[in-house]
């Protein structure tokens, strides 16, 4: 189970996030939403999680197969359609290296089973309590 803690004080809307392994990052809102754009917005954090997991999963698979994948680039957007209560995530992936079309298609299949992709496409339950 992954775990993070966060803290927000009086400074609009800067959030300090710390992982259980001790890594720290800052989340914030863009200036147009009242923040100072000091870090990724919450929706950018969702896109970043999918981007990182996709890239890592594809890299691990290509390395195990000893394929000549030199780079993986992703372009991910997250759009929350409030009117229809629907989230649309657009993910584009570019594989660089000496790869056949068959290998690229297999890497696309692997990208679609990265753990964060699975989390985002399955039912999600959020239990909230005061501590």
Give a structural overview:
The mean pLDDT is 97. α1 packs across α2. The chain has 131 residues and is of the alpha+beta class. The radius of gyration is 18 Å and the shape is elongated. The chain has two domains: 4-33, no CATH class; 42-121, GMP Synthetase, Chain A, domain 3. The chain has helices spanning 42-65, 101-111, 115-121; strands spanning 4-8, 15-19, 24-27, 69-81, 86-97. The protein has a three-stranded antiparallel beta sheet, with no helix packed on it. Strands 4-5 form a two-stranded antiparallel sheet. The protein is 32% helix and 30% strand.
Shape: elongated
Strand order of the largest sheet: 1-2-3
SSE order, as H and E?
EEEHEEHH
CATH superfamily of the largest domain: K homology (KH) domain
Relevant terms:
single chain, 131 residues, alpha+beta, GMP Synthetase, Chain A, domain 3, 2 domains, 3-stranded antiparallel β-sheet, two-stranded antiparallel ribbon, 32% helix, 30% strand, elongated
């Amino acid at each position: 189970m992954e775990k993070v803690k966060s803290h927000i004080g009086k400074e609009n809307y800067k959030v300090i996030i710390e992982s259980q392994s001790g890594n720290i990052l800052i989340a914030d809102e863009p200036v147009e939403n009242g923040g100072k754009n000091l870090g990724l917005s919450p929706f950018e954090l969702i896109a970043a999680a999918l981007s990182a997991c996709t890239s890592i999963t594809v890299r691990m698979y290509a390395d195990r197969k000893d394929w000549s994948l030199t780079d993986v680039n992703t372009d991910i957007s997250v759009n929350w359609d409030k009117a229809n209560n629907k989230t649309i995530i657009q993910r584009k992936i570019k594989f660089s290296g000496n790869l056949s079309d068959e290998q690229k298609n297999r890497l696309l299949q692997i990208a679609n089973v990265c753990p964060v992709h699975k989390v985002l496409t399955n039912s999600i339950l959020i239990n909230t309590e005061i501590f």
